[in-house]
């Protein structure tokens, strides 16, 4: 029974950005623990920035829990966590003495970067030599060019048309020899 519970927990953790959510929740708890330890609730009523620190911490905790419960929203929630962690630097004791801010940034980045385990078989970003050769063979079988001889002939004709035009353009762009700066250097100074 115990091993079965571990397998279920492991599969649950792998099916969502678990570590990103954990770091986001830890950042929120850390940001919330410092003002609560200082018993700053009366001050929070009087000053808005301490209240903003409470709000940032609570939203981070909620965002971390939502990253676990709704993995499809991980990018949005991760960006919210990153932005709130940066805002905590100003509003909540230098981001919970930098620890809460760093945990929130790390958790937000992990949540944004997480991808599900199951990937489609024909992904476009996975290119191998074998897949390129198979695609070339499939393309060659669909093209109605007998042994590529027509395509090669068209390419040769195109080259015959383009190369003389390039030469003519290069010759037209040349500066006459008597007007070039090199010719001026060769002239004797008077």
Describe the structure.
The chain has helices spanning 2-14, 18-37, 41-46, 48-69, 74-91, 93-97, 99-113, 129-142, 149-173, 181-186. The protein folds into two domains: 9-113; 129-186, no CATH class. It contains ten helices and no strands. The chain is 76% helix and 0% strand. It is mainly α and 190 residues long.
Topology pattern, helix = H, strand = E: HHHHHHHHHH
Given the helix and strand composition, which structural class is it?
mainly alpha
Question: In whole angstroms, how far apart are the ends?
Answer: 105 Å
Based on DSSP secondary structure assignment, what is the total number of beta strands? 0
Architecture blueprint of SSEs:
Layout: H1 2-14, H2 18-37, H3 41-46, H4 48-69, H5 74-91, H6 93-97, H7 99-113, H8 129-142, H9 149-173, H10 181-186
Helix pairs in contact: 2-4, 2-5, 2-7, 4-5, 5-7
Q: What's the short story on this structure?
A:
This protein is mainly α and 190 residues long.
């Amino acid at each position: 029974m115990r091993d079965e519970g571990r397998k279920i927990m492991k599969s649950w953790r792998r099916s969502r950005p678990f570590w990103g959510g954990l770091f986001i929740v830890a950042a929120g708890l850390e940001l919330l623990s410092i003002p609560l330890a200082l018993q700053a609730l009366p001050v929070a009523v009087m000053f808005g920035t301490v209240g903003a620190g409470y709000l940032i911490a609570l939203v981070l905790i909620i965002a971390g829990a939502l990253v676990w419960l709704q993995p499809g929203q991980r990018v949005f929630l991760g960006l919210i966590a990153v932005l709130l962690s940066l805002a905590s630097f100003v509003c909540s004791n230098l981001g919970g003495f930098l620890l809460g801010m760093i945990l929130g940034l790390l958790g937000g980045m992990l949540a944004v970067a997480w991808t599900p385990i199951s990937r489609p078989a024909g992904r476009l970003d996975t290119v191998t030599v074998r897949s390129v050769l198979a695609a070339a063979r499939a393309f060659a079988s669909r093209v109605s060019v007998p042994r590529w001889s027509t395509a090669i002939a068209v390419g040769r004709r195109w080259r015959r048309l383009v190369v003389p035009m390039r030469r003519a353009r290069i010759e037209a762009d040349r500066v006459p020899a008597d007007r070039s700066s090199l010719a001026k250097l060769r002239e004797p100074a008077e």
